[in-house]
Amino acid sequence: MITPAGLLVDIDGVLVVAWQALPGIPEAFTELRSHRIPMRLATNTTAYSRAEIAGLLGNEGIEVDRSHILTAPSATAAYLRREHPGARCLLLNEGDPSDDMEGVDLTDDGSADVVLIGGAGPVFSYDALNRAFDRLSGGAALVVMHRNLAWRTADGMQLDSGGYVTALEAATGVRATVAGKPAPVFFASGLQALGLPGNRVAMVGDDLVNDVLAAQDCGITGVLVRTGKFTAQSLREAKRQPDAVVDSFAEIPRWLELR
Prior knowledge:
The chain is of the alpha/beta class. The chain has helices at 25-34, 50-59, 72-83, 126-137, 162-172, 184-194, 208-217, 232-236, 252-258; strands at 6-9, 16-17, 20-21, 39-43, 69-71, 88-92, 105-107, 114-117, 141-144, 150-153, 156-159, 177-178, 201-205, 221-225, 244-246.
């Protein structure tokens, strides 16, 4: 394996849980920056803008510029501007991602051309899902920021929007297009931001499928951390193994030294 020269790093479950830094993470992040290791944070988080994420991380001693954060909403906006220019998009998402969706026409009426699904929460009511079902049945496209099934919070694992997406697909026969992880275009945008080829970059994540194996499919080294949503069972049952497994992102500076 070629020693990675740059890093793509998931946020939730890797650097923080419930926006509180995991042990040793601020110190590891600072050490990597002191060695000028180029990094981009690559997250499917949809509840906060890049500026808000940078602020939340800064509060925990993890200093990062908003321009170094790649989010599912920003990737989705780029996809919509390219593939559905001028489309009216019915958004179903917990939180307001509009700051990172410049040039996208978000609507809550019945005339949408695209149903846009983000992160799950209380807004995923029967009425909201039925409105999405109606538009999809009427010919709207289905674009989703991610297909995460669950994520870890301070109260434990909680349901995310992937299950709802699968239900809408089954009910309407409309196949979703994914713009965030694990879509190859999302990882390609990360490599472009780093200015490095895939074989010189490692993706560090807690989601075996959407972070690690998806990155490996793009020629990127996949590193799984045993924090966040990691389970030993999912690792045992994986269709293939990560390139590396570490206990925490706090170990990444040492792992890079040993390559």
